Amino acid sequence: MVKVKVVRSGGFAGIQRRGESDSASDPLLSHLVDRVDLGAVPAPGRIPDQFLYDIDIDGRTTTVGEAQLQGPLRELVHHVLDHTR
Length: 85
Prior knowledge:
Blueprint: E1 3-10, E2 17-22, H1 27-34, E3 51-57, E4 60-65, H2 71-82
Antiparallel strand pairs: 1-2, 1-3, 3-4
């Protein structure tokens, strides 16, 4: 079973949003995780008021700025935040 947690923070208002999902309840999650390479994720840039995403995939963690959130990782993050249980 794969478990993913996402915390979005920052932005102009500083409101935090959390999402969590696992492959037991979300069959699409494993497919999305398989497409993500956390080792290729760039460090967050210093952009005022941008969202920062703390991502945990089965204990492997990274922090990504909104400007760097692209491709399969973006799909995964939005899927988890939009379909959290």
